[in-house]
Specification:
By secondary structure, this protein is α+β, with helices and mostly antiparallel strands. The chain has 6 helices and 13 strands. Strand 5 and strand 6 form a beta hairpin. It is globular. It starts with about 30 loop residues before the first helix and ends with a strand.
Length: about 270
C-alpha cells in the first residue's frame, strides 16, 4: 500500500460528499421607491435632529457686525454649547455659561422674532455704562479690540448710555424699551437683570442693538457661530427681499457667480 505524500488530497466521490443544504428561500424584494422614501425619511429626520439640537446655518444680511462678520458671510451656528437654562441634563453634557465677548445668534424680541447676531457685552448683574463711546462694566473700562466707530454718525443717545433721565430723544428707540429703560438705571448705570444679556454690534454706530431695544432673554439665545462655511460678496440691499422668490433668485445668482463672488479667503474662517 502506497502512502500519501504530505499535502496530498483524495478526490471526493459522490458517497463522500456531505448532503446538500436546502437552498435559501428567496427574500421579498422591495420596490425601488420604498427604499428611496425610506432613505429620504431617515435623511430628513437626521437633518431635523441636527438643526434642532446641534448645528444650524445662517447668513449675515447687515453691516452691524463688521469687520468681524461681513454681509454675505454664511455661518454654522453651534446650538450645543450654552448652559444656563436649568435643564436637568446640562450637568451631563459639555455646556458652558455664556461669557462676555461671545458672539451669539438669538431671536429678536419683537417683529415676529427674526434672528439677530450680536456680541455679548453685559451679563446678568452687571452695571453697564458708556461714556464717549467707551464701555465701562462695573466701573472698569472694557477692552474691545473688535469694536469700530464711525465718528460721522455720532449719536448722543448711544455714545453716552444709559440716559440719566427719562427725557431723552427716542429716535430709533423701540417704544417698548423707551418706556422701561429708566426702571433699570441706578447711579447712572444700567443694571442688567437676571437671565438677561446686553448685546451690541461690533460696528457700533449703525448697529441696532440693546441700546435701542433692550435685553436679550436667555431663552431666546440659539447658539454661537463657529465658522464661516461660505462667504459671498454682497450688499445689504441684496437681502432686502426675504420672500421665497427672492431667496430663490439670490441662490440662483450666487450659484451662477459662485467663483467670481466667493470670498475664498474667508471660507472656513473661525468666528471670534
Amino acid at each position: 500500500m502506497s502512502s500519501l505524500e504530505a499535502g496530498a488530497v483524495l478526490p471526493e466521490t459522490a458517497e463522500s460528499l456531505p448532503p446538500l443544504a436546502a437552498p435559501p428561500q428567496p427574500r421579498a424584494v422591495r420596490g425601488g421607491y420604498a427604499d428611496f422614501f425610506e432613505s429620504l425619511l431617515i435623511t430628513i429626520l437626521l437633518a431635523l435632529f441636527g438643526t434642532t439640537f446641534i448645528l444650524q446655518a445662517y447668513k449675515i444680511p447687515s453691516q452691524s457686525m463688521e469687520p468681524t462678520l461681513l454681509v454675505g458671510d454664511h455661518l454654522l451656528v453651534n446650538k450645543f454649547i450654552f448652559g444656563g437654562t436649568g435643564a436637568w441634563y446640562e450637568r451631563f453634557l459639555p455646556y458652558r455659561p455664556i461669557r462676555r465677548g461671545d458672539i451669539i445668534v438669538f431671536k429678536f424680541p419683537y417683529d415676529d422674532h427674526p434672528h439677530y447676531v450680536k456680541r455679548v457685552i453685559g451679563l446678568p448683574g452687571d452695571h453697564l455704562r458708556m461714556i464717549d463711546q467707551r464701555v465701562f462694566i462695573n466701573g472698569a473700562l472694557l477692552n474691545e479690540p473688535y469694536a469700530v466707530h464711525d465718528h460721522s454718525q455720532a449719536d448722543a443717545f448711544s455714545d453716552n448710555f444709559p440716559p440719566v433721565t427719562g427725557d431723552f430723544p427716542a429716535r430709533n428707540v423701540r417704544p417698548e424699551w423707551a418706556g422701561r429703560i429708566m426702571d433699570y438705571v441706578h447711579n447712572a448705570a444700567l443694571v442688567i437683570p437676571p437671565d438677561r444679556y446686553f448685546v451690541m454690534g461690533d460696528n457700533r454706530d449703525p448697529s441696532s442693538d440693546s441700546r435701542y431695544w433692550g435685553f436679550v432673554d436667555r431663552g431666546a439665545i440659539i447658539g454661537r457661530p463657529m465658522v464661516i462655511y461660505w462667504s459671498v460678496a454682497a450688499t445689504a440691499e441684496d437681502y432686502n427681499d426675504r420672500s421665497l422668490l427672492g431667496t430663490i433668485h439670490g441662490l440662483e445668482d450666487g450659484l451662477i457667480h459662485l467663483n467670481s463672488r466667493t470670498r475664498w479667503h474667508r471660507v472656513l474662517r473661525e468666528v471670534h
